[in-house]
Design a protein that fits this description.
The protein is α/β, with parallel strands linked by helices. The chain is built from seven helices and five strands, in the order βααβααβααββα. The protein has one domain: Rossmann fold (3-Layer(aba) Sandwich), CATH 3.40.50. It is globular, with a radius of gyration of 15 Å.
Length: 150
């Protein structure tokens, strides 16, 4: 297994899966994600996501009654290494355009894609192949790195 090629500076967008894998230190993906967090701690990059992340990340722990995990997610989104970007009217308009152009793209994914594009992110980290259809998204699919060892 290799590592992710990180930009030397700028914004790295984590979709909900990447954040969930990070908080829960997923055995398969943590080795790819940990260096990104280290780069953020060093101030080399900033990890961002949409406000939508909080909703998506909290559903599982709330459903299972895991208050410790709820707290871990809430602490992460308030940490200096991560910043949530608001769902603005511009984001919603861009997401609507993405959904109109790419009917298979789900609304939450359109919001993530639109947020990243409008913020000018240098890297978009996900494990969802569906984002490949979003033009202009500087995409990294974690499973690709596991398969290739790249």
């Amino acid at each position: 297994m290799g590592s992710l090629k990180l930009p030397t500076s700028g914004l790295v967008y984590f979709d909900s899966q990447a954040v969930i894998y990070s908080v829960e230190t997923h055995a398969e993906y943590w080795s790819l994600l940990e260096p990104v967090w280290q780069a953020a701690e060093a101030g080399a990059v900033e990890i961002v996501s949409s406000d939508l992340l909080l909703l998506e990340a909290l559903v599982g722990p709330l459903r299972s009654g895991d208050q410790e995990l709820v707290t871990a997610y809430e602490q992460l989104v308030k940490s200096p290494e991560m910043r949530l970007l608001p769902i603005t009217e511009a984001v919603l308009r861009k997401a609507a355009r993405l959904r109109a152009d790419l009917p298979a793209l789900r609304t939450p994914d359109a919001i993530h894609g639109a947020t990243a594009l409008l913020a000018g992110c240098d890297l978009f980290v996900t494990n969802d192949f569906g984002f490949r259809q979003v033009p202009g998204l500087p995409l990294v699919v974690l499973r690709d790195h596991l398969r290739r060892g790249a």
